[in-house]
Amino acid sequence: MATTTIQVSRDTRDHLAQLAKERGLSLGQYVAQLAEQQPTEAQRAERLAADRAALRALTGCDISDDEFDQAPDVLGNIYRIAAEKVRAARGDAA
């Protein structure tokens, strides 16, 4: 496998090296792991298309991409409501 050099500040390099060490990885392995965890825009678009196709197949509804884009963010709303309930239970201000 070919390798390359990435220029970062010493502080960044030292920080990444410490994180890698704590995980039992080399710096190169850790950077590769970080990169693998971040999908590209094309990968996100592919995943979105696959998720929409699966939903269409499971529900039998032929929802257009425009209809998906205009739909409310149900999961985001659930997270927001849950966070509000946790804050209220703790007595925190919203």
* Shape field: flat
Proportion of strand residues: under 5%
End-to-end C-alpha gap = 51 Å
Structural Rg: 21 Å
The average pLDDT score comes to: 91
> Which secondary-structure class do the elements indicate?
mainly alpha
* Helical run tally: 5
Order of helices and strands: HHHHH
Helix content: 55-70%
Main beta sheet = none
Total beta-strand segments:
0
Low-confidence parts: none
Question: Features of this protein?
Answer:
single chain, 94 residues, 69% helix, flat
Task: Produce a short descriptive summary.
The protein is 69% helix and 0% strand.
What does this structure look like?
This protein is mostly helical. The chain is 69% helix and 0% strand. It is built from 5 helices and no strands. Helix 1 crosses helix 2 (27-36). It is flat and about 50 Å long. The relative contact order is 0.05. The mean pLDDT is 91.
List the helices and strands and how they pair.
Blueprint: H1 10-22, H2 27-36, H3 41-59, H4 65-70, H5 74-90
Helix pairs in contact: 1-2
